[in-house]
């Protein structure tokens, strides 16, 4: 995800009722002060922005609890590729260095995304081989820079339309083909870093069975075309307004049928568009229960299919839903409250991910 999200994708529309409750925060429940990564029997991750690492409390909470780190947006094309075609790696390098210094795995996102066809590529639109060469060179430069440090990459991100039926059209599909640009991306990423696990990543796979079926048909085609897909990422951006019991178990079971590693890649659980914060304890319980179901489905997989379990932020106040471009400033979607205190969601994850 990026901070420039299309709000319709999350139906995240601010309301006067919810805005009046902005100041009301989570009341944490005491649990054992044990780092999540020391409890979990699988790699656990969180996303980060470069500036957050300058805050000692944030950096300590991140390094203490998580064993894998994903740059939230500064390893995406929107940051790395400048309008004149030059690359900038200052911020992603700083994040990679933090991971290295703290013994954390680095996870890269994302190499190819429909939402990003920056001006440098727009200038090459329709130019055949020049476009294809620039496409390859970008993937080689970015994935190759972190060769040996990045455990995996989101090579292709969000290829299915919100209607759940069609594949997205973009500058990549127009110049390289709908399925073909994805197959090429996986081959280029494999060339850049043969040992990284290469993922195709999507959202709403749990609560939209139609979209999941379309996504799975795509994965099947790409594999048959020889794309070296190494894993499947399910973002798991949840909303309490759009959940039903068992949806996580069904989705993970389906996605795991390819036999590939599964990455829960961007988990957060929004309290909803207009939550009744007078009933906050009940909302937090529902949030924890949903996280528990997802973690349980993930932990039911064979060990070789459990790549990592990642949350999309550290504290509620760090969430993209509440950030500069967020639409839900009252929301509390993550395992830690703004003061860094664990919530019921943390307790649920700690219990289940321990195995």
For the sheet with most strands, the description reads: 8 strands, parallel, barrel
| N-to-C span | 29 Å
Helix content: 25-40%
**Could you say what the CATH architecture is?**
Alpha-Beta Barrel
Number of helices: 13
Give the DSSP E fraction (strand runs of 2 or more residues): 15-25%
Polypeptide structure, described:
The protein is globular, with a radius of gyration of 19 Å. Strands 1-2-3-4-5-6-8-9 form an eight-stranded parallel beta barrel, surrounded by four helices. Helix 7 crosses helix 9 (180-192), helix 11 packs parallel to helix 12 (280-299) and helix 12 (280-299) runs parallel beside helix 13 (344-353). It has 355 residues and is α/β, with parallel strands linked by helices. The chain has a single domain (39-353), classed as Glycosidases (TIM Barrel, Alpha-Beta Barrel). The protein is built from 13 helices and nine strands.
Give the SSE map.
Layout (H helix, E strand, L loop, with lengths): L15 H4 L16 H4 L4 E5 L7 H10 L2 E4 L5 H4 L9 H12 L3 E9 L5 H4 L6 H17 L4 E8 L13 H6 L3 H13 L4 E6 L6 H16 L6 E4 L2 E3 L7 H9 L6 E9 L9 H20 L6 E6 L32 H10 L2
Parallel strand pairs: 1-2, 1-9, 2-3, 3-4, 4-5, 5-6, 6-8, 7-8, 8-9
Helix pairs in contact: 7-9, 11-12, 12-13
TL;DR?
The chain contains 13 helices and 9 strands. It is of the alpha/beta class and 355 residues long.
Task: Please describe the structure with a list of short key phrases separated by commas or semicolons.
355 residues; alpha/beta; TIM Barrel; 13 helices; globular; disordered N terminus
């Amino acid at each position: 995800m990026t901070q420039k999200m299309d709000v319709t994708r999350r139906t995240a529309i601010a309301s006067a009722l919810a805005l009046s409750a902005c100041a009301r925060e989570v009341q944490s429940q005491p649990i054992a002060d044990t780092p999540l990564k020391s409890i979990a029997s699988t790699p656990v991750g969180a996303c980060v922005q470069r500036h957050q690492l300058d805050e000692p409390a944030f950096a300590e909470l991140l390094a203490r609890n998580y064993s894998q780190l994903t740059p939230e947006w500064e390893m995406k094309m929107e940051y790395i590729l400048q309008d004149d075609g030059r690359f900038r790696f200052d911020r992603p390098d700083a994040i990679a260095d933090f991971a290295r210094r703290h013994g954390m795995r680095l996870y890269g996102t994302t190499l190819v995304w429909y939402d990003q066809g920056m001006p440098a590529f727009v200038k090459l639109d329709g130019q055949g081989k020049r476009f294809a060469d620039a496409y390859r060179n970008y993937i080689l430069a970015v994935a190759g820079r972190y060769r040996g440090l990045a455990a995996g990459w989101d090579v292709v991100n969000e290829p299915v339309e919100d209607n759940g039926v069609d594949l997205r059209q973009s500058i990549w599909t127009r110049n390289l083909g709908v399925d073909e640009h994805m197959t090429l991306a996986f081959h280029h990423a494999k060339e850049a870093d043969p040992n990284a696990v290469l993922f195709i990543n999507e959202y709403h796979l749990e609560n939209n069975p139609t979209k999941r079926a379309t996504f799975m048909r795509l994965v099947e085609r790409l594999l048959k075309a020889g794309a070296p897909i190494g894993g499947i990422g399910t973002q798991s951006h949840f909303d309490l307004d759009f959940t039903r019991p068992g949806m996580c178990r069904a989705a993970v079971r389906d996605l795991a049928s390819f036999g590939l590693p599964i990455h829960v890649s961007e988990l957060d659980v929004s309290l909803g568009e207009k939550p009744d914060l007078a009933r906050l304890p009940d909302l937090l319980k529902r949030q924890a229960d949903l996280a528990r179901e997802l973690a349980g489905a993930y932990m039911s997989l064979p060990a070789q299919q459990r790549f990592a379990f990642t949350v999309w932020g550290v504290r509620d106040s760090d969430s993209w839903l509440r950030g500069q471009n967020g639409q839900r400033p009252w929301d509390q979607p993550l395992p830690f409250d703004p003061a860094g205190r664990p919530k019921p969601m943390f307790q649920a994850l700690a219990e289940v991910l321990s195995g």
